Amino acid sequence: MDHAAAAHRPLGAITVDDMAAALGAAEGAAAMHTALRRAVEVRGGDGAAAVWGELTRGVLRPSVPFAVHRMLYYGCYAGFPSATPPAWTPDREEAVLTNVGRVLEARGREFLGEAYKDPIASFGDFHKFSIENPEVYWKMVFEEMGITFSVEPSCILRENDAYPGGEWLPGAVLNAAGNCLTAKPGRSSDDVAIVWRDEGKDSEPLNFVTLEELRKKVCLVANALDALNLAKGSAIAIDMPMNVNAVVIYLAIVLAGYVVVSIADSFAAPAISMRIKISEAKAIFTQDYILRDDKELPLYRAECYTVVEQPAYAFTNILFSSGTTGEPKAIPWTHLTPLKSAADGWCHMDIHRGDVVAWPTNLGWMMGPWLVYASLLNGASMALYNGSPNSSGFAKFVQDAKVTMLGLVPSIARSWKSTDCTAGFDWSNIRCFSSSGEASSVDDYLWLMGRACYKPVIEYCGGTEIGGGFVAGSLLQPQALSAFSTPAMGCNLFILDNSGNPLPQDSTGTGELALDPTFLGASTTLLNADHHEVYFSGMPEWNGKVLRRHGDEFERTADGYYRAHGRADDTMNLGGIKVSSIEIERICNRVNDTILETAAIGVPPLGGGPEQLTIAVVFKDQSSQTEDLNQLKLAFNMALKKLNPLFKVSSVVVVPSLPRTASNKVMRRVLRKEFTQQPKHSKI
């Protein structure tokens, strides 16, 4: 049986034998095939998306082998006119229960006038409204999240040449951490703020920290910090795993008017030293004590603290870019940045009171602080697992903690799928997934959705210097795999043509991404680089504003989705055609079931000439390195013909793993350099 061929047959051509092959047994194949035929009969007249929705609701349970899910997904959309078919479609009854849906049902006509129809049909108009009416939109969001100011801003946004895109919340005085610890309307001090568990204690009860308990712990640390006699605004580093203590310390530093220096706990001494030097940190937290001048300072026993209210643009956090080329950029966050993080969670992931939010990360990367603010500012609980997410222990924690929003990077999903470590655990409480950090795989995320009875994956792309996303998904729009359905609320983005000019808005095309500089939370300075030079120098204007550089290669499809193609410097020129590494990798990853992942590299030949396409391959089983690489290269070339018949793989190189930054981004330039200097790995 040709499983690959069966996986792409139209539903009407799938036989009972095909079903048995996908199930791995004849038993149950006839019943499954009957259920398939019934779904086609009931919803076939409503289109492929309706049939797929019927299959995900009534046929494709988590216990059904993934081969069946895959066969029916590709069969459902065989011949579909778009490369981005919806894997999930919003339901009207569920849409009105979301944060945005609820607001639109109550105020849609106030915002959009007679053009308003319903939350699903009018979401696109509401996004435009968020850009064109920032005063109204952001006032509404802050009210919904219960953000409080000790001094109210004079307005939401005003022109100010000192701030690219304008000055947000002029005159406002607030404290982002203080807002996290406040019992707001509809939220009790007895609500769970953090649920956690240690690795290796998977059979023990969960641990809980209420909002009041968290407040007391944070005040205790804040008092200890003041005993250091540091000037307010001094930088204090955190180099710890993402656990309850780290969250308490993070909030305490911000609450007390100091600045967190975020350092990933995976860094070696030289990287830690570099970040401490750049930030001029005066002290560092390593575990449950403060280290200053080689002295351990115990935490004071005190539970009251007066919040240090600060101007909106006062620094709260210094984070660092990945630093794959030279010194990492030191990016300050202000009290505005957490509002952007939380607003994205409110709108795009629909985080609200009663939710449990998990995202394996670290305070050294932007998703660590993002998790703190997106959870607590929206009244949700944060779920922390003190151990590896690539384990059955984490999968059980997701089940036991009743996680409702699970964030991840694609490599985690790839690991789960490869090891099947999530099998047998009930993830039915999940309402949505979210994904960031790198390009995802259609098959991996189809598998992931199936683990939670086909809840959507909200793709999310942004940057540390933004404090959140510029492009995302929404529970009010159909979601396609490995694609974004909308620019983030309040954000306007542009794709640049080959001349560096913006394409007409809402037109199709591929090119480097640029951002309208007017969006809340974006950086306005860097500690160790010229902010204007990095983000604005040489960029085109639009409507009198210089656009902001981001550096990612993006595509806008004919049906309105966005697809990421990696960094602009991760593109290559093959035979005069510019193509993204990500685009090639998506195809190569699916050529052979023995492949874990690939990296596509354009390697200049010795002596010069056009770039030659090299595919680095990591096998699921390292013993597979004995596989016939000539056959694999042939398979790659056959698959790539569907992308462009002129693309040809020159060589295949087997590597044990792909080099990645500490934030999990593939360092293709490292491979390019290595392959240019005579690779030592298995090669053909």
Give short descriptive properties of this protein.
single chain; 684 residues; alpha/beta; Rossmann fold; GMP Synthetase, Chain A, domain 3; 3 domains; seven-stranded mixed β-sheet; disordered N terminus; transmembrane helix; 4-coumarate--CoA ligase; 4-coumarate-CoA ligase activity; transmembrane; ACAS_N
Task: Provide structural commentary.
- The chain crosses the membrane at residues 247-272.
- InterPro entries: ACAS_N, AMP-bd_C_sf, AMP-binding_CS, AMP-dep_synth/lig_dom, ANL_N_sf.
- This is 4-coumarate--CoA ligase.
- With 684 residues, this protein is an alpha/beta fold.
- The protein folds into 3 domains: 11-80; 99-289 and 296-554, ANL, N-terminal domain (Rossmann fold, 3-Layer(aba) Sandwich), CATH 3.40.50.12780; 575-677, ANL, C-terminal domain (GMP Synthetase, Chain A, domain 3).
- Helices cover 32% and strands 21% of the residues.
- The chain contains 22 helices and 35 strands.
- Strands 6-5-16-15-17-18-19 form a 7-stranded mixed beta sheet, sandwiched between helices. Strands 11-10-9-7-8-13-14 form a 7-stranded mixed beta sheet, with helices on both faces.
- 51% of the residues are buried.
- The model is unreliable at 1-5 (pLDDT under 50).
